[in-house]
Design brief:
The chain is α+β, with helices and mostly antiparallel strands. The protein is about 25% helix and about 25% strand. It folds into 3 domains: about 90 residues, Uridine Diphospho-n-acetylenolpyruvylglucosamine Reductase, domain 2; about 110 residues, Uridine Diphospho-n-acetylenolpyruvylglucosamine Reductase, domain 3; about 210 residues, Vanillyl-alcohol Oxidase, Chain A, domain 3 (3-Layer(aba) Sandwich). Its cofactor is FAD.
């Protein structure tokens, strides 16, 4: 869509405290970049909003012209949902303030904040909430899709800790949502994605966290994975909530925490965080360090904020990404065999296979409290394909991800919506399962024209909503 076909854009520019960026601006190409370099979209209008009033102004402008809306927080969605080719982008990157109310154990977080902003502010009070494992992840996208991270087994998902929010709805109103003011909409925001408006403020319940946790990585050769993973499975079967672990099968990345001699080596890493008593943690995790002969063991007391940035170097903006995911119940011998077989065929030194241990507090939240669809899975696996932007072998990397996903499909009990890629509307519907009908009803109430459609979209016009 050409900017010249959108009437009144000059008046929109005058009405914003922030900036309106168009293809004619020098800043345009930088403003339309997102984390996934594989996404190349050219939005006609990017409204870089300074505050909630700017967001409401831009939404009203789009609604009056029937233009779809994309919301950009951190821009970290692999599917590129922060951009559109035919509508208005609400860029919230100027809205990153975090205010902590320690006596109420609440964090008030603006919609464009990144997780490093939240961690820095909350840790000043020895408080925290489950956040992304990459510090540049946007708060908005992670929260609205669920939010898995190091603390989830003790503190619940990010979405489970969302107690209030301010959002601008499709009719341009700025409303506050909490357990007493539209609890149904709060339910939808807890996992239903960005379908219901642009959230300009998140209110999070906080927990005692850090500032020191017992954390790090234990790295074994990938050749030992068929021995290491069954032992890992047995140890975590009755793990305390304080222990969060993420397996990662990949070629060892060239990051500062790992000796150069290991770079490029096929590995299985156990990334762990013990957020309880440190001495108790040392005793509990000792077996993790003795499943064989580790190539590297960095587990030690560290600052929680340092843990939250530990793998930032493995997920850099501008690389090209494609992924799929599967929720499954247990690391059975068959599942382990499938994971190791496909991880051994990895096609890029940038690709990875993180396997998240769920359960704990995640599994104890009642279904009716949130729209999150992966509540009772034991694990989630993310087949994460990544490659350099100047390479022309995209098809090979994508094929590896899809083949891996198909091999895991017989073990699937669901999908984590934030890890969807190009599965389309059927994939979104499957991820939400029996929650789909309720989500469609909510979408029809707050965004019947589907202006907020650049997300894991719940289409209010789908005729089969009652079949879910």
């Amino acid at each position: 869509m050409d900017i010249l076909t959108i009437s009144g854009s000059d008046k929109l520019a005058d009405a914003l405290r922030g900036d309106l960026i168009t293809p004619a601006d020098q800043l345009y190409d930088e403003a339309r970049k997102v984390w996934n370099g594989d996404i190349d979209r050219r939005p006609p209008l990017i409204a870089r909003c300074a505050d909630a009033a700017d967001v409401a102004t831009a939404v009203t402008f789009a609604a009056e012209r029937g233009l779809p809306i994309a919301v950009r927080g951190g821009g970290h969605s692999v599917a590129g949902q922060a951009l559109c080719d035919d509508g208005v982008v609400l860029d919230l990157s100027m809205m990153r303030a975090v205010r902590v109310e320690p006596h109420r154990r609440l964090a008030q977080v603006q919609g464009g904040a990144l997780w490093r902003d939240v961690d820095r502010a909350t840790q000043a009070h020895r408080l925290g909430v489950t956040g992304g494992i990459v510090s540049e992840t946007g708060v908005g996208g992670l929260t609205l899709g669920g939010g898995i991270g190091h603390l989830m087994r003790r503190c619940g998902l990010t979405a489970d800790n969302l107690v209030e929010a301010d959002l601008v709805t499709a009719d341009g109103r700025c409303i506050t949502v909490d357990a007493s003011a539209d609890p149904e909409l709060l339910w939808g925001l807890r996992g239903g994605g960005g379908n219901f408006g642009a959230v300009v403020r998140f209110g999070f319940r906080l927990h005692d966290v850090g500032p020191t946790v017992l954390a790090g990585m234990i790295i074994y050769p990938l050749a030992d994975a068929l021995s290491v993973l069954p032992q890992y499975r047995d140890l975590i079967a009755d793990a305390p909530d304080a222990l969060g672990t993420i397996l990662n099968l990949r070629l060892c990345p060239p990051v500062a925490a790992i000796p150069e001699r290991l770079h490029g080596t096929p590995i299985v890493a156990i990334n762990m965080c013990w957020s309880g008593d440190i001495e108790e943690g040392h005793a509990y995790v000792r077996p993790l360090r003795n499943f064989g002969r580790p190539m590297l063991d960095t587990v030690a007391p560290m600052q929680y904020v340092d843990l939250q940035q530990m793998v930032d170097g493995t997920s850099r903006p501008g690389k090209h990404y494609y992924w799929r995911s599967v929720d499954f119940e247990r690391l059975t011998d068959q599942v382990i065999g499938t994971i190791v077989e496909h991880a051994s065929r990895i096609t890029s030194p940038l690709s990875a296979v993180p396997v998240y241990h769920l359960g704990g507090a995640v599994g104890r939240v009642p279904d009716e409290d949130s729209a999150f669809g992966s509540r009772h899975a034991g694990h989630n696996i993310n087949m994460f394909g990544a490659w350099e932007p100047d390479r022309d072998d995209r098809d090979r990397h994508v094929a590896w991800v899809r083949d891996f996903s198909e091999a895991m499909a017989p073990h699937s009990v669901g999908q984590y919506v934030n890890f969807l890629s190009d599965e389309g509307s059927d994939g979104v519907r499957a991820a939400y399962g029996h929650r789909w009908r309720r989500l469609v009803a909510l979408k029809r109430r707050v965004d019947p024209l589907n202006l907020f459609r650049y997300n894991y979209n719940i289409d209010p016009g789908r005729e089969d909503e009652g079949d879910a």
